[in-house]
Design brief:
Layout (H helix, E strand, L loop, with lengths): L19 H7 L6 E3 L11 H10 L7 E5 L2 E2 L6 E2 L10 E2 L1 H9 L3 E4 L7 H14 L3 E8 L14 E8 L2 E6 L16 H8 L5 E5 L4 E4 L4 E6 L4 E8 L4 H12 L3 H4 L11 H19 L4 H11 L11 H9 L6 E4 L6 E6 L2 E6 L2 E6 L3 H7 L5 E2 L8 H13 L3 E3 L2
Antiparallel strand pairs: 1-11, 2-3, 2-6, 4-5, 6-7, 7-13, 8-11, 8-13, 9-10, 9-12, 14-18, 14-19, 15-16, 16-17
Helix pairs in contact: 6-9
Cofactor: Fe(2+)
Pfam families: JmjC_2 (PF08007)
InterPro entries: JmjC_dom, NO66-like
């Protein structure tokens, strides 16, 4: 079974059985979708893996969270000092986790897309296919228990049932398309009122089943008569508000929009603010007319770098390979790294990543374009350069972590 890192099986196919186009048209950001027997997910994470993470991987908060009967359990109840040589006080204590699990608490392993290899690969593949940052958490609930009360998320999710069974109750949103600044806790009374009504979905998920929930849809889930383990794959897709936020960041660089207001202006008084508002809107329109789409795109790329990390690389192997790189070695663009080629002047070509830019002579243009198309390339086959220049270019882009070695 191929993982989500670019093999024969697309990562999206592991989450939903529909063709991508049909899913995009029918369900994406629109409607829930329950699918039966989609896949076996035990290769991604199983109960033995959970024990491995808890007992041997020295996890710390916030990678672990626990809850019971709708309330989050303080981390101090299941974490403590790590012992000699590790001066931290929030390492997970497996015996305390055991006590809480035995008492019916739900365990949440957070950020597994950053630390568990099969889920790193799945998140990377899904992120590249959908063009969105992806996060993955795991939820383990003892038989007959429920960790969290009815709530909604401000991002869409795929639920992948790994082991055991869990009953899901799904209700329509109380807020259409909520964003992060609109968490469910601010509308707890409305959520509770809707949750008291008839659910849109009331089904039991068994191993291999999946559930897609657009952001805002209310949901609660409880384990039945066995231990339930599921993965929640969060899709943090940008919205039109994301474009507005990128514009707001850029607006801070425009002097006309940073100008102070007349002395005595009362922003809480409609008559006082009216002329200021008119002038501000006029200045905003004039500034927006000067923007090019790539200005907004560049700002978005820079501000999302820490959210959507590229595929992992092997720092030691890559560092060791630099000195002995040969024409026979194969390199490729680091998967998941957004890059853009620009020509600041006729003599140079720049490779722009979100947090760095590598500029090389214009004679490298054909080779750069070949390297950045995503396919593995033999260094000795790079077009437009001789042998030594090919090695120099490959070393430069490996050093910038724009390229990685192709194993």
């Amino acid at each position: 079974m191929t993982d989500g890192s670019g093999g024969a099986r697309p990562a999206l196919r592991r989450c939903v059985p529909l063709p991508a186009g049909e899913f995009a048209e029918r369900n994406w950001d629109r409607a829930p979708l329950l699918s039966r027997r989609v896949d076996d997910y035990t290769d991604l994470l199983d109960l033995d893996d959970v024990d491995e993470l808890l007992s041997r991987r020295a996890l710390r908060t916030p990678f672990v969270r626990m809850a019971q009967q709708g309330k989050v359990i303080p981390a101090s109840r299941y974490t403590g000092g790590a012992g000699p040589g590790a001066e931290v006080g929030d390492q997970v204590r497996d015996e305390r986790v055991f006590e809480l699990l035995a008492g019916g608490a739900t365990l949440v392993l957070q950020g597994l897309h950053r630390l568990w290899p099969p889920l790193v690969d799945l998140a990377g593949g899904l992120g590249r296919e959908l063009g969105v940052p992806v996060q993955i958490n795991a939820y383990l609930t003892p038989p007959g228990n429920q960790g969290f009360a009815t709530h909604y998320d401000t991002h869409a999710v795929f639920v992948l049932q790994v082991a055991g069974t869990k009953r899901w109750r799904v209700h329509p949103p109380v807020v259409t398309d909520p964003v992060e600044r609109q968490p469910w806790g601010h509308r707890a009374d409305e959520v509770a009122a809707v949750a008291a009504g008839e659910p849109t979905i009331d089904e039991v998920l068994a191993p291999g089943d999946t559930l897609y929930l657009p952001r805002g849809w209310l949901h609660a889930a409880g384990a039945l008569d066995d231990w339930s383990l599921h993965l929640t794959v969060g899709l943090r897709a940008p919205t039109r508000l994301s474009v507005v936020e990128a514009l707001l960041d850029l607006a801070a660089e425009e002097p006309a929009l940073r100008a102070g207001l007349p002395m005595g202006t009362d922003l809480g008084d409609g008559s006082s603010i009216a002329p200021v508002l008119a002038d501000t809107v006029k200045a905003l329109h004039e500034w927006l007319d000067t923007l090019a789409p790539h200005d907004v795109a560049d700002r978005w790329r820079r501000t999302t770098t820490s959210v959507a990390r590229p595929a992992p690389m092997r720092p030691v192997a890559q560092a060791a390979a630099l000195a002995r790189l040969s024409a026979g070695d194969r390199v490729r663009l680091r998967p998941g790294l957004p890059v853009r080629i620009s020509t600041p002047d006729p003599d140079r070509v720049s490779i722009e990543a979100p947090d760095r830019t590598a500029t090389v002579p214009a004679v490298c243009t054909a080779a750069v374009r070949a390297l950045l198309d995503g396919a593995p390339r033999r260094v000795g086959d790079l077009p437009g350069l001789d042998g030594d220049d090919r090695l120099v270019l490959a070393r430069r882009l490996l050093t910038e972590a724009i390229l990685i070695l192709d194993d």
